[in-house]
Amino acid sequence: MRLTLARREALWAFVFLAIPLAFFLYFRILPTFQALWLSLYEWHADPSQRRFVGLEHYARLLTDPVLRRALFNTLLYTLLGIPSQIALGLVIALLLQRVPFGRDFFRAIYFAPYVTPAVAVAWVWSWMLSPHFGLVNELLALLGIPPQPFLQSPSQALPTVTWVVVWQNLGFQVVLFLAGLESIPRQYYEAARIDGAEGWRLFRHITWPLLNPVLVFSVVIGTIGYLQLFTQVVNLNFTDQGGPLNSTLTLALYIYQLAFLRFQLGYAATVTVLLFALILLITLVQLKLLTRRVEL
Amino acid sequence: MKAKNRLTGFLVLLFLFLGGSVMVLPFLWMVLTSFKPFPELFELRFLPREPTLENYRAVLGETGFMRWFGNSLLVASLTTLSVLFFDSLAGYTLARLRFPGKNLVFILILSTLMVPTEMLVIPWYVMSAEKGWINTYWGLLFPGLITAFGVFLMRQFFETLPQDLFDAGRMDGLSEFGVFWRIGLPLVRPALAALGIFTFLGNWNAFLWPLIVVQTPEMRTLPVGIALFSGEAGTAWNLIMAASSLAVLPVLLVFFFFQRQIIEGVVLTGVKG
């Protein structure tokens, strides 16, 4: 009787999981392997004309100057963007903790861009950043700063795109840090105060170490986001996608251009394998860091 | 001491206010621009001198805007319903039912989280081309119907519930599905709300896959419509700003109504997950 009960439960489990499992196998796991497979082929719309090229595409990765540029840019976005949004997010969260009123109001204001369509965000910013009639240059002029080309300059375009992305992600950081700060037990601070600790030392020895899991999560999730940067880059420089002289080109945009503008699906798939490897690496680092316990 | 506190309090508020202005300014500028007639665009005045609804009339009347809005609404709603049902069903099964291979199934689903969309869109495109899904609603919908993240989230929630509740349901003669539907689901309503809102927003804002799978203007979703329409319209910034304002409006409404659930959702995934 017990056996049949257990069997009945297992049967139901497979009935419930049938559709989700089929979905994951067919639309997630199979395509992952198809991408790996495609990376070994020269793609052609006619299946009989697809030519096996082995690791040729992987060799091309090593000598492709545009790929090198896209990879370099993508890493630069991450290196500029992550520290900026984490530092700004932390400062704002710490300040918000101190205000006696309006915390929810400010939090909502900072969070709003995060839920806004990236396409709309990109177009508004590209309008405001226009060198000739943009609001930003007008505001800079009030401070006596000459007009800047921003998105139209090979050297300024990438930091400008990064700024827009940081602007959009900031609210997410603030909310995470606020929650992290609230989860730190008050007693720790009280105990430390009795021992004579104040201000900076409280932050250094209590807040910072106890915020570590949130910090690791933010860095990892943020990095994965920057590695996949696409929508803002496309829409901020719509007529010149990838920016002047490929100065804003990212891996994701390069993949899109290769696959869907030039129909080199095989080589594009190879670049996605590179992206996958990077994301896998980040995820493994996260697991390693998060399983290490925080010591007080 | 007191005076010093008051000064710091003032500086804190000032800083937050300045930061807040930077966050709000683009929205404000977008909406103000959307009410300006074309010649006023380049004058850099804050308020429109002769405010006009002409841009909105043009966007709603002369572009495919209404259709794109409808497409986005349809895609986002259907994917959200599907995600809520299947993700919670799978999450419930993985948390509450015993069956052989349970961990394997869970790891299999979870492992798909690491695969970037960019890697999947190429095979999805090939698959869609072969099966005739390009430029169809099914083509737009299928990648988002079930999500690994949602399964994971719902599993975490179902695990926290006491087993007695489910056993009681079985005693009373509910079917296995009845236990999930009548007992399980009502208890995880907060998680369903957060997951639903995030799924809806994510699909409403989605850009990469819709851009790839859509070919004709009528099938565009809102973000694709705006991006390509801006490209076609060149420098019609007043129209772009009106279209963007209309695209942002529902999102901000959802956000202000469900702020608590959204914030809790972020906290759930980042701090407690």
Q: Topology, please?
A:
The complex is a heterodimer of chains A (296) and B (273).
Chain A lengths: L1 H37 L2 E2 L8 E2 L3 H8 L1 H34 L4 H13 L2 H11 L6 H8 L14 H26 L3 H9 L4 H12 L1 H16 L3 H6 L14 H11 L3 H27 L5
Antiparallel strand pairs in A: 1-2
Chain B lengths: L1 H33 L19 H9 L2 H32 L5 H10 L5 H15 L5 H5 L6 H12 L3 H9 L4 H12 L1 H17 L2 H6 L8 H12 L3 H21 L1 H14 L1
Helix pairs in contact in B: 1-13, 2-13, 3-7, 3-10, 3-12, 8-9, 10-14, 12-13
General description of the model:
The complex is a heterodimer of chains A (296) and B (273). With 296 residues, chain A is mostly helical. Chain A has helices at 2-38, 56-63, 65-98, 103-115, 118-128, 135-142, 157-182, 186-194, 199-210, 212-227, 231-236, 251-261, 265-291, and strands at 41-42, 51-52. Chain A has 13 helices and two strands, in the order H-E-E-H-H-H-H-H-H-H-H-H-H-H-H. In chain A, helix 2 (56-63) packs across helix 13 and helix 4 (103-115) crosses helix 7 (157-182). Chain A is globular, with a radius of gyration of 24 Å. Chain B has 273 residues and is mostly helical. Chain B has helices spanning 2-34, 54-62, 65-96, 102-111, 117-131, 137-141, 148-159, 163-171, 176-187, 189-205, 208-213, 222-233, 237-257, 259-272. In chain B, helix 1 (2-34) crosses helix 13 and helix 12 runs antiparallel to helix 13 (237-257). Classes of the chains: A mainly alpha (296), B mainly alpha (273). At the A-B interface, helix 1, helix 3, helix 4, helix 5 and helix 7 of A face helix 1, helix 3, helix 4, helix 5 and helix 9 of B.
